[in-house]
């Protein structure tokens, strides 16, 4: 790892100003992704700004929403009693990610900004448009078992690896950020982006903005929810496919529903068409299957990941079935 | 095209590394460097400018390891794992993958289990670190250490320090209420010998015996 300078920020303002001017300066929170990437020389900042002392760790339950500080630890959120009660989908998704040691280190902001696990991205001997723009994409025509089936481009077919983000996209969360030009809010579903021909950009942050918190509006998804994660071993592995399903059911009728998938696109993939279809319908396996077929419209495989075209709809039906029978 | 080009570049880089290594080996410098403690490389023998360069590249760090206060200078890039093993010679904590994938490097920082290989030492100012070496009281082993021996919780033993540190935390966190829960919350500790069954036995025994208060 290249050596670097490290400083500790004591306020959000000073954190923002101390990286704004310097090209290769970066924030560091839990370090579980950044230190790994620096060891592999995928990123090589000259300066790190340690943001762990900032007062952004609180989980607050306000009148109409829940606010989670960007530096709250993944385990802290996953095991918070009120989060488990009010947003069980989020707690489940977080608990399904990484290992307990990593969840104790990883922060909410860092989780959102973790980079893809595409093996070509990690290997500096390989071409990768995300790591080195215009160098080519090793995964197209290469080994792409983990890769996208939705929204990919000729430049990049990587997926965003987070579990937490799939739940936050489903729950209509908002991201609060602070940058050199002030504060602003970004809808969670617009925070991550599709690769297009600029896959080096994972998200819509500008000028090295600092994520300060995430807000989730109040909802009725407290009972019939499920986060289904399909992976190569039953724990401590990234998702091949995951499905976040939240249902608000009354007398067997679906009042409201949220569906999102992970492991299938460059961003958490909201299934809005399937959601619209399900609203007002009576629960049955047939309508779950129809919703899944709708959700898969436009999906395409790249070889090794063709199995996701079958696994995807099955996972959607399974997640809806489990959620509705809770 | 791009693939070929980058591979070729890499080869030349490797070749030049190889010849540099050869030179270092021949000159004897390599052995000297390998033997020297990494941070304060024989400071007294150093020239002024080298001292200044080193001072600029390191940061002061005070922390407590197994109850002993340490005042050190570390490079910002030094991981807690390397600090423990290379600078403090506490080699009980193991380096398995060095990338967060195996749990061999698990230690407790301020009472919480974390991976020392992904932790920058320079971010641990005033932290209280506990490693496997800090568990026993004099000659008396920690109940979890006893339980691992009694239940054959290891074969080669390489993952064991991490398993033990993680097992203690697993109980303290309240995640040892069933074999399934133990397995889930111990999934961050890989055992290549496959001693999992006996590891769960050991943790269950400590939990049920109420040996950790
Ligand atoms: C072995 C392993 C297995 C894993 N498995 C899973 C899994 O199954 N599911 C899953 O979801 N994740 C998994 N992860 C990823 C893990 O969740 C992320 O590494 C973690 O969430 C990153 O958070 P952090 O605080 O450590 O971020 P850091 O590593 O500190 O930072 C990551 C990036 O975010 C930036 N950053 C951090 N905080 C902020 C902020 N507040 N504002 C602006 N920028 C910021 C940093 O500059 C950096 O670029 C795994 C990781 C490992 C090592
Ligand atoms: S899929 Fe994206 S991240 Fe992977 S090699 Fe191609 S450009 Fe790089
Ligand atoms: S050495 Fe740290 S997790 Fe493997
Ligand atoms: S005992 Fe050999 S790796 Fe676990």
CATH superfamily of the domain at 224-324 in chain A: CO dehydrogenase flavoprotein, C-terminal domain
Oligomer: heterodimer
Number of strands of chain A: 12
Number of helical segments of chain A?
12
Beta-strand percentage range of chain B = 5-15%
Order of strands in the sheet with most strands of chain B = 2-1-5-3-4
SSE order of chain A, as H and E? EHEHEEEHHHHHHHEEEEEEEHHH
> Whole-number radius of gyration of chain A?
19 Å
Order of SSEs of chain B, N→C? HHHEEHEEEHHHH
Based on Cα principal axes, name the global outline of chain A.
globular
Number of strands of chain B: 5
Question: What CATH architecture of the domain at 224-324 in chain A would you give?
Answer: 2-Layer Sandwich
Q: What is Rg of chain B?
A: 21 Å
Can you characterise this structure?
The complex is a heterodimer of chains A (326) and B (213). By secondary structure, chain A is an alpha+beta fold. Chain A is built from 12 helices and 12 strands. Chain A has a 5-stranded antiparallel β-sheet. A 4-stranded antiparallel β-sheet of chain A has the order 9-10-11-12, sandwiched between helices. In chain A, helix 11 (285-295) crosses helix 12 (308-324). The longest helix of chain A has 17 residues, at 308-324. The model of chain A has no long low-confidence stretch (mean pLDDT 97). Chain B has 213 residues and is of the alpha+beta class. Among the domains of chain B are: 59-134, Beta-grasp domain (Ubiquitin-like (UB roll), Roll); 143-208, DNA polymerase, domain 1, CATH 1.10.150. Chain B has 8 helices and 5 strands; from the N terminus they run αααββαβββαααα. Chain B has helices at residues 2-27, 29-35, 48-57, 80-87, 143-150, 160-172, 179-185, 196-208, and strands at 59-65, 68-74, 106-109, 112-115, 128-130. In chain B, strands 2-1-5-3-4 form a 5-stranded mixed β-sheet. In chain B, strand 3 (106-109) and strand 4 (112-115) form a beta hairpin. Chains A and B meet through strand 1, helix 2 and helix 6 of A and helix 1, strand 4, helix 6 and helix 7 of B. The structure holds flavin-adenine dinucleotide, iron/sulfur cluster (SF4) and FE2/S2 (inorganic) cluster (2 copies). Residues 116, 118, 120-121, 128-130, 137-139, 156-158, 199 of chain A line the site of iron/sulfur cluster.
């Amino acid at each position: 790892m290249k050596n670097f300078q490290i400083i500790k920020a004591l306020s959000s303002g000073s954190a923002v100003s101390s990286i704004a001017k310097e090209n290769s300066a970066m924030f560091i929170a839990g370090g579980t992704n950044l230190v790994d990437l620096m060891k592999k020389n995928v990123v090589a900042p000259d300066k790190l700004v340690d943001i762990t002392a900032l007062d952004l760790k609180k989980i607050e339950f306000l009148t109409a929403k829940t606010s989670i500080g960007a530096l709250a630890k993944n385990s802290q959120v996953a095991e918070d009693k009120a989060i488990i009660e009010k947003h069980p989908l989020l707690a489940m998704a977080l608990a399904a990610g990484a290992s307990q040691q990593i969840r104790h280190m990883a922060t909410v902001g860092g989780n959102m900004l973790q980079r893809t696990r595409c093996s070509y991205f990690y290997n500096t001997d390989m071409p990768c448009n995300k790591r080195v723009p215009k160098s080519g994409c090793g995964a197209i025509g290469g080994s792409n078992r983990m890769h996208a089936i939705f929204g990919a481009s000729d430049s990049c077919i990587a997926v965003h690896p987070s579990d937490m983000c799939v739940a936050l996209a489903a729950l209509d969360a908002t991201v609060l950020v602070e940058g050199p030009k002030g504060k602003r809010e970004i809808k969670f579903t617009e925070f991550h982006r599709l690769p297009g021909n600029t896959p080096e950009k994972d998200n819509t942050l500008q000028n090295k903005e600092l994520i300060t918190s995430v807000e989730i509006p109040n909802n009725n998804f407290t009972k019939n929810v499920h986060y289904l994660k399909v992976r190569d071993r039953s724990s401590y592995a990234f998702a091949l496919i995951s499905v976040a399903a939240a249902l608000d059911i009354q007398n067997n009728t679906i009042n409201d529903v949220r569906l999102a998938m992970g492991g299938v696109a460059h961003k958490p993939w909201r299934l809005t068409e399937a959601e619209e279809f399900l609203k007002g319908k009576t629960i049955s396996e047939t309508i779950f299957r129809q919703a899944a077929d709708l959700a898969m419209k436009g999906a395409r495989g790249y070889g090794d990941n063709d199995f996701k075209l079958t696994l995807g709809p099955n996972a959607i039906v399974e997640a809806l079935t489990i959620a509705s029978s809770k | 095209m791009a693939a070929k080009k980058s591979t070729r570049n890499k080869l030349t880089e490797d070749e030049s590394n190889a010849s540099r290594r050869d030179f270092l080996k021949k000159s004897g410098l390599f052995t000297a460097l390998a033997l020297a403690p990494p941070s304060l490389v024989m400071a007294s023998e150093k020239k002024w400018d080298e001292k200044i360069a080193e001072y600029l590249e390191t940061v002061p760090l005070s922390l407590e390891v197994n109850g002993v206060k340490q005042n050190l200078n570390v490079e910002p890039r030094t991981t807690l794992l390397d600090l423990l093993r290379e600078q403090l010679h506490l080699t009980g904590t193991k380096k398995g993958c060095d990338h967060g994938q195996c749990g061999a490097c698990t230690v407790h920082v301020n009472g919480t289990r974390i991976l020392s290989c992904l932790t920058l030492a320079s971010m641990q100012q005033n932290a209280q670190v506990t490693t496997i070496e800090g568990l026993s009281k004099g000659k008396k082993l920690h109940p979890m250490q006893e339980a691992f021996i009694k239940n054959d919780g290891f074969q080669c033993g390489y993952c064991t320090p991490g398993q033990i540190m993680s097992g203690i935390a697993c109980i303290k966190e309240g995640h040892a209420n069933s074999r399934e829960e133990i397995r889930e919350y111990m999934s961050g500790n890989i055992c290549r010998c496959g001693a999992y069954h006996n590891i769960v036995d050991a943790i269950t025994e400590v939990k049920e015996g109420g040996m950790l208060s």
